Amino acid sequence: MKHLIVRLSATGHGSSCSDLLGLPAGISGVRMEPRLGNKFRIGRKIGSGAFGEIYLGRCTNTQTNEEVAIKLENTKTKHPQLLYESKIYRVLQGGTGIPNVKWYGIDGDYNVLVMDLLGPSLEDMFNLCNQKLSLKTVLMLADQMINRLEFLHSKSFLHRDIKPDNFLMGVGKRSNQVYVIDFGLARKYRDSSTHRHIPYRENKNLAGTARYASVNTHLGIEQSRRDDLECLGYVLMYFLRGSLPWQGLRAETKKKKYEKISEKKVATSIEALCRGFPFEFASYFHYCRSLRFDDKPDYAYIKKLFRELFFREGFQFDYVFDWTILKYQQQSEIVGAPPRAIGLGAGTGSDMVPPFTNVKQSGCEEWRASDLFKVDPSHRVELTPPTAYVSSLANQNAPVANDPSVSKDAPSPSTLCGTEDVSFPIPFLSNVVLDNDALNGGLGFYLWEIDIPLSIIMSKLCTKAIRRVKAVPSKTII
């Protein structure tokens, strides 16, 4: 990325650097070049909110020229929160899915917080995927998101603003990891030393985002751990349903709108909210609402609830999210090559970590299917390919008929699948490769290369086409 550096004349004539770059005026040194604390160079604006603005930045005192996120808040703001937020980040440092703080300070007219640069938010990914996520993707996200809240609560803090915008995906080797951000509304719910819980109180103003706020929060009850979890439940249903019943309500004032949302939320039963989806989601809400104000949630129980659903559906925790599939489809369309199954042959030209890889490399600490099977890599094994993975893809996107990348000379689908109601052929499998490191670790992941276009893999019919294949453990360790 090229950076424009504008130097002013001694008489002060000419446009300021902040004007040319769209940077905020009043940062010391910006009159000469866009720098902060002699350590970071400011680039373009990448976000904004009630707190202020976020800019792309680079470290200037390191050989890596690392990119960072720079959060700016005017020192004259009525309700400053960046200093408070920076202190919470310091407490949380080292936790999985918590961005690292590079620097905090005051520069000119701005409070400045410099942190790791992360990827898109879950709201961004939700919109990218046509505002609906598959069950598999939602369950993989839920597991990490519950872990983030459990860690935050273990440090004696509530988030109090759980929403898709405040969960971000990582970048590079951490692109499959979910991060939690924005602790401007976070509060302690207990004393860090004595663990004494805050007292129950009522008549509190709504803190957070009304769309995802818990029923008790709407009723003015002091928030506790149970409320963060209930908010998360609404986020998960938002992903699955595409919207929540209380969206789109209109009112003359914000207060009246909040009242309407509260009324609709209270009137919507858990069963109605979760209708059409596995019962585990209703069970999750019933559990959250059964908790007393100062109860410690059983995080293991709610994670187990979703994990059992995950395995019952036949999914594999391979980090193949809906947007992973979409990204590889788009890349294939750009280069004009036939889409390939995501595996050893897919390539890793972007920051996206290959989904079938060593979990330690992916930067994700989450649960593994380690008890499902263990394979001795020294023996030839006959394996059924992960048809559950193929099936999960089928649930996420419809197959593309008349795919131009599919050879017209391939055998007919009726030959392979025993059906007549499809209009596209299915090429043969080429080879299947197992990764020794994954096998020795019992991760339960198959690394495989398939010459079936991705659009066809997403058809349930393919589960009949690839019943069993011979596989020899590969000597190559990813």
From TrEMBL:
PROSITE patterns: PROTEIN_KINASE_ATP, PROTEIN_KINASE_DOM, PROTEIN_KINASE_ST. SMART domains: S_TKc. Coiled coil: none annotated. ATP binds at residue 71. Keywords: ATP-binding, Kinase, Nucleotide-binding, Serine/threonine-protein kinase, Transferase. Residues 40-311 form the Protein kinase domain. Belongs to the protein kinase superfamily. CK1 Ser/Thr protein kinase family. Casein kinase I subfamily. This is non-specific serine/threonine protein kinase.
